[in-house]
Amino acid sequence: MKRTALKIGYVGTNFHGFQRQPDLRTVEEELIYHLRKLDYIDDLKKSRFRIAGRTDAGVHSLGNVISFQSEKEVRVNEINNFLPDDIQILASAPVRYAFKPRYAQMRQYRYMLFQDLDVDKLRECAEVFNGTHDFTNFTKRFQKTTTRTIDDIKISKVDLDDYHKREFPNLHDTLSPIFVDIYGESFLWNMVRKMMRVFVDVAIGKMDLDEVERLLNPQEDEPRAYIKVMEPDYLILMDIQYDGIRFRYDDYACERFRRNLVDSLTDLQRKYAIRESMIKSLKDLHEF
Fold first, then answer.
1. How many structural domains are present in the chain?
2. 222: DSSP letter
3. Among residues 47, 45, 65, which one has the least CA distance to residue 55?
């Protein structure tokens, strides 16, 4: 039996998260169903099916990882032919028998902010978060250890206008988001989205850096702070990397997923146009 790791891309909008849930559509359920249907796996225990991490409902991915062992040679595009358009395998790698995707060397998350925020203040906030801290205040669950290390945070103001005009000339003008790319070995549940709430609060002057320091260094008997999580729709799990493992991206699979994303953009444009037309018509009717 050969053990293989697969890197998964998906648009999280129509999924109830990654992890299997009774009677709900999830990424993991779709993958297991089609891997069984194609005879790659049968019993999950025997195939040692494992996942790198769970993403919440609405969160997207270009790099979540699963692994399993199978008698069959894994053919990425055979599996993709049966998967729905909003989930595709992008890369694969042979791995050792004991490989557990949960234990990664590095994870990268990207959160997209669409407010007009002070980028310098966001970068100052990032400096406070870099390094090892107690993230008790940045998760909902009580866990054995809440100490985590942030290796790096990159803030970039992105102008997608030229790209959109070149690649998608029929689309309306786009927004220019701020990318917040966060790198670390592991993250707590809701940690990134709670961090983003603090970033925004600092950028708009609602919180200062001393308050951020206190949130990252809570006293032992101090009650957990309430930090409202930011929306999941703007979070992408960009990549997961492992020591000594090199994934091979499949050109056809990546292009196929890109085309699926382009097609969904066209659909979103039509929905946008309908709402825009209704707003204008409502105004005309009201004036009439």
1. 2
2. P
3. 65
Among 153-167, 246-260, 264-278, which is the least confidently predicted range? 153-167
- Do 95 and 194 lie in one domain? The reply is no
Q: How is residue 191 written in tokens?
A: 């940690």
Neighbour count for residue 178 (Cβ, 10 Å): 19
- 72 pLDDT higher than 70: yes
89 and 115 in a single domain? The answer is no
Active site residue 56: yes
pTM (whole model) above 0.85:
yes
Same structural domain for residues 133 and 173?
yes
In which band, very low, low, confident or very high, does the pLDDT at 163 lie, cut at 50, 70 and 90? low
Q: Catalytic one among 56, 85, 134, 151?
A: 56
Within a 10 A sphere around the Cβ of 174, how many other Cβ atoms? Answer: 14
Do 43 and 8 fall into the same domain? yes
The dihedrals phi and psi of 76, each to the nearest 5 degrees, come to: -55, -50
- The residue written with tokens 């039996």 in the block is 1
pLDDT computed for residue 271 by the predictor? 85
CA distance 25 to 57: 10
Asked if residue 180 lies in contact with residue 102, where contact means CB atoms within 8 angstroms, the answer is no
CB 119 within 8 A of CB 178: yes
Residue 79: band (very low, low, confident or very high) from pLDDT cuts 50, 70, 90: very high
Q: Sign of the CA dihedral 162, 124, 59, 74?
A: positive
Around Cβ 141, how many Cβ atoms within 10 Å?
Answer: 8
The residue whose two tokens read 């946008």 is: 272
Does 279 fall in a domain? no
Q: Which domain holds residue 212?
A: 108-235
